[in-house]
Design a protein that fits this description.
Blueprint (H helix, E strand, L loop, with lengths): L31 E5 L17 E5 L28 H7 L4 H4 L1
Antiparallel strand pairs: 1-2
């Protein structure tokens, strides 16, 4: 059975390098862990419309993984309009709609 019930919640803040770690204690079986970027520290870089603000990971100890470390996909915020020097890279990565780049 799938529900939207929250069974565990924990907040973390990135360091100066933009990385974060979240220690999770306990066993959560088949629960899905959503890692979500909530708030940008920069007023000019707070857009999340490009679907890069959420990642799902498995945190069960019984999922056949031999390591207790899990990695979420990159999470980040974007500016309203891409910087000219970044436009080509963003286009290649398909992170933003073409109309936001041009």
């Amino acid at each position: 059975m799938t529900t939207d019930a929250v069974t565990y919640s924990k907040e973390a803040t990135t360091g100066e390098n933009g990385f974060y770690t979240i220690d999770v204690e306990g066993e959560f079986g088949d629960d899905i862990c959503d890692v979500t970027a909530l708030k940008s520290s920069r007023e000019d870089c707070k857009d999340t419309r490009g679907r890069v603000d959420k990642s799902q990971i498995v945190i069960s100890n019984n999922a056949g993984m031999h390591n207790t470390v899990r990695y979420a996909n990159p999470l980040f915020f974007t500016t309203e309009k891409a910087s000219p020097q970044c436009a080509q890279v963003l286009k290649e990565m398909d992170y933003v709609p073409i109309d936001k780049i041009m």
